């Protein structure tokens, strides 16, 4: 399938490479491709400049948000949560309409330092904000509460024996996303309900960050045992 | 050990019975023991009247909050989260001072119906509120994100293969609580850090409630696989 991954950070790159490996036609969307490729300094958390990464991943294209989104059947939001609405607005509502929009971003607010708080939280979620802002997109919230390496390679922890949630208003979209998740190796996909249930997995981020600190590694995940 | 469980609801009863079974001297604390025993109607969610439960659990005592707390070495908070500070105030700060206070309550706000939101949330937690209100108590937040039947009998789900968190400022208190958890059968106890980390497990309640709905049973738990 033609998939646009919005976001050039570590998570966007990792997910784009994983999807390309499965044979999907993947393009990374960014605000300004020339600026993205011109950067020569490492990004946040020491990620290499995009052009350097791109040289090793020639199967992944790069395009401006609207171009990437308009050509795609599925759009994946991996932009910074506080800037996601802006990025999707730049991609163009008309380029999202009728399409599956997989929202993996987290609304982390780092303005007060570490640990971040969430904004929105509790009575709203980023997933809901995106669905409200783009009512014709078929938003599915998923995969936000695990490190990005696990998204495309769940087997790297506990042989893939862990769980992933989906939230969304469109049953067919959730079903298609569930199939995509299974093709990536996710075996336990739990449908939480409509898009308001995205609050749950987003609100797992505070404990995720604390477990990360306690264990000293992001290589863990939540398994719902029953 | 002498343990006071504050709260006469389903969770308080279940935990009190489980601790008594292990040989601890357990008293349930309530605001007005006479009123608690005089009730003849079922409680919320169809729990039988307390006197009826008590007749089958003669090894568990009943006392007013201050009496229960003053005689105890460990106090367990299983009161309604929105009323916990009031209940603990009624128990008396002098009866909590220097003692381990295990906080299992959740600050669920049902004023807007189901699903509840949390109050406090995000930049504060009930665990922190309790620690601030009773600075001489040694507060340990734990066990709040699983159904109460699992607290005292973790083996009833997945042979006990799941995880429990502890948060608190007092290392010795966390160590003692970890031993108590292990004596109940909890094998994977993860120390998240100081009491501010209680935000994490409290903010897992929204997803807990949605998983409960999705699975149709509260008999599940989170296992941190790594």
Principal-axis shape of chain A:
globular
Q: What is the CATH topology classification name of chain A?
A: Rossmann fold
What is the element string of chain A, with H for helices and E for strands? EHEHHEHEHHEEEHEHEHEHHE
Percent of sequence in beta strands of chain A: 15-25%
The CATH superfamily of chain A is identified as: NAD(P)-binding Rossmann-like Domain
Q: What is the subunit organization of this protein?
A: homodimer
Helix content of chain A: 25-40%
H/I helix tally of chain A = 11
Structural class of chain A comes to alpha/beta
The end-to-end distance of chain A, rounded to whole angstroms, is 34 Å
Main sheet makeup of chain A: 8 strands, mixed
Q: Any low-confidence stretches of chain A, pLDDT <50, length ≥5?
A: none
CATH top level of chain A is Alpha Beta
The largest chain-to-chain contact, stated as pair and per-chain residue counts, equals: A-B, 39 and 39 residues
> Which CATH architecture of chain A would you pick?
3-Layer(aba) Sandwich
Mean pLDDT of chain A: 97
Notes on the protein architecture:
- The first copy, chain A, contains 11 helices and 11 strands.
- Chain A is α/β, with parallel strands linked by helices.
- The first copy, chain A, has one domain: NAD(P)-binding Rossmann-like Domain (Rossmann fold).
- The mean pLDDT of chain A is 97.
- The interface between A and B is large, with 39 and 39 residues.
- β11 of chain A pairs antiparallel with β11 of chain B, so a sheet runs across the interface.
């Amino acid at each position: 399938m033609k998939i646009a991954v919005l976001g050039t950070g570590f998570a966007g790159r990792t997910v784009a490479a994983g999807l390309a490996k499965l044979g999907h036609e993947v393009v990374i969307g960014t605000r300004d491709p020339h600026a993205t490729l011109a950067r020569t300094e490492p990004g946040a958390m020491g990620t290499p400049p995009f052009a350097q990464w791109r040289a090793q991943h020639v199967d992944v294209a790069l395009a401006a948000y609207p171009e990437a989104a308009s050509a795609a059947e599925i759009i994946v939001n991996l932009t910074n949560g506080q800037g996601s609405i802006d990025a999707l607005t730049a991609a163009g509502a008309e380029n999202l309409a009728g399409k599956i929009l997989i929202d993996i971003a987290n609304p982390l607010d780092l303005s007060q330092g570490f640990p971040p708080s969430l904004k929105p939280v509790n009575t709203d979620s980023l997933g809901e904000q995106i669905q409200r802002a783009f009512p014709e997109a078929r938003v599915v919230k998923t995969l936000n509460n695990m490190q990005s390496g696990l998204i495309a390679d769940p087997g790297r922890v506990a042989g893939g024996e862990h769980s992933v949630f989906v939230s969304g208003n469109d049953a067919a979209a959730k079903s298609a996303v569930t199939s995509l998740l299974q093709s990536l190796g996710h075996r336990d996909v739990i449908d939480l309900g409509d898009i308001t249930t995205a609050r749950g997995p987003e609100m797992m981020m505070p404990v995720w960050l604390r477990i990360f600190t306690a264990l000293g590694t992001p290589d863990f995940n939540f398994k719902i045992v029953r």
